[in-house]
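[step 3/7] inverse_fold.run input=structure_tokens len=365
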């Protein structure tokens, strides 16, 4: 892409600022925009911990001034609250574990923002994500430690055709060095972490304030009651800490959350091997790197934003998409995304709706 009208989404961090500068260097007509995602910015994380604060807006504006591009702030607070924050709460309420960054990319940055940008005559939206678009397909970044293709895999082919990720071929340390050479004050600004809209980082407290007490039981795999809890939303599959189980396991080994049943308000705990999953059922697939599967396909699947990739076979089984793993994975939670890869190429993304442990005999079949 060259000589395009480009809208650069500038979060106030080093990555988006450097991406905007590179878009200018590439000959594009670039306009910077910062997304105001909270009606009350003080309620979101501050300092180096955030991505939605007044400080971030000021940092983005200063970067735009140094780069020499027009800069605006777009109020997306209402849309963000509805599509990201409320979705986050609703998912936990029904026993699933959402990824709000993935939802923000899907609903805000590459839906609401892209739609507005195209309506205003822009050709593309540029962000500081670490990923690559090659011939209309999404691929992993050159820096595997910073690769963000997992949280971008929900984008459609149409959205990817209007997306620019200028940092996808560059390691993070080189991006910081480049930002310093460009005179960008955010060159040494730490990366944001955790959930931007939970000011104190206390996800359990945040959910409790919105969902209220919903006491229930903590049981082992036999159904024996081991303790009580104030709400299933305080747990996620694979969790070890904070179980508040008074009775130690008979074998002295640690317990983990194996299952969450919000209807009966039951949390089941057990040994680590109880987390082993070999088959995953997924819903709402988005295919960007291949056509919808007509026959089984071997590849890799990533189940967390920074998790390992597992060898697998994906297939449609009576209209249901199933992913069978070659080796068991642990801590796979409903609501997370399963992203399929062929090497570094993203084939598609879907939402995990169920898991099971298939016997070795069944795997051979």
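[step 3/7] decode complete -> sequence:
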């Amino acid at each position: 892409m060259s000589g395009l009208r480009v809208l650069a989404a500038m979060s106030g961090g080093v990555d988006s600022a450097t991406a905007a500068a590179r878009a200018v260097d590439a000959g594009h007509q670039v306009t910077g925009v910062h997304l105001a995602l909270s009606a009350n910015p003080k309620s979101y994380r501050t300092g180096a911990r955030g991505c939605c604060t007044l400080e971030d807006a000021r940092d983005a504006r200063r970067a735009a001034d140094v780069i020499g591009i027009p800069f605006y702030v777009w109020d997306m607070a209402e849309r963000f609250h509805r599509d990201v924050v409320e979705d986050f709460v609703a998912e936990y309420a029904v026993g699933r574990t959402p990824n709000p960054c993935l939802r923000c990319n899907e609903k805000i940055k590459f839906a609401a923002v892209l739609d507005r940008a195209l309506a205003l005559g822009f050709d593309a939206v540029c962000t500081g994500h670490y990923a690559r678009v090659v011939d209309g397909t999404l691929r992993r970044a050159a820096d595997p430690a910073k690769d963000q293709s997992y949280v971008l895999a929900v984008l459609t082919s149409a959205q990817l055709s209007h997306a620019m990720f200028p940092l996808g071929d560059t390691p993070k340390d080189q991006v910081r060095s480049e930002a310093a050479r460009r005179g960008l004050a955010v060159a040494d600004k730490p990366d944001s972490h955790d959930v931007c809209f939970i000011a104190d980082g206390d996800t359990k407290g945040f959910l409790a304030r919105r969902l209220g007490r919903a006491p229930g039981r903590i049981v082992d795999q036999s159904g024996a009651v081991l303790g009580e809890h104030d709400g299933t939303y305080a747990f996620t599959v694979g969790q070890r800490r904070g179980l508040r189980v008074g009775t130690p396991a008979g074998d002295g080994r640690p317990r983990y959350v194996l299952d969450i049943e919000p209807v009966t308000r039951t949390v089941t705990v057990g040994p680590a091997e109880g987390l082993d999953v070999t088959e995953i059922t997924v819903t709402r697939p988005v295919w960007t790197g291949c056509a919808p599967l007509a026959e089984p396909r071997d590849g890799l699947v990533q189940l967390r934003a920074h998790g390992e990739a597992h060898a697998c076979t994906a297939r449609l089984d009576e209209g249901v998409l199933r992913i069978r793993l070659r080796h068991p994975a642990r801590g796979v939670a409903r609501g997370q995304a399963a992203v399929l890869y062929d090497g570094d190429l993203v084939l598609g993304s879907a939402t995990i709706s169920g898991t099971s442990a298939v016997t070795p005999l069944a795997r051979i079949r």
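[step 4/7] annotate
Residues 45-50, 360-365 have pLDDT under 50 and may be disordered.
The CA atoms of residues 124 and 297 lie 32 Å apart.
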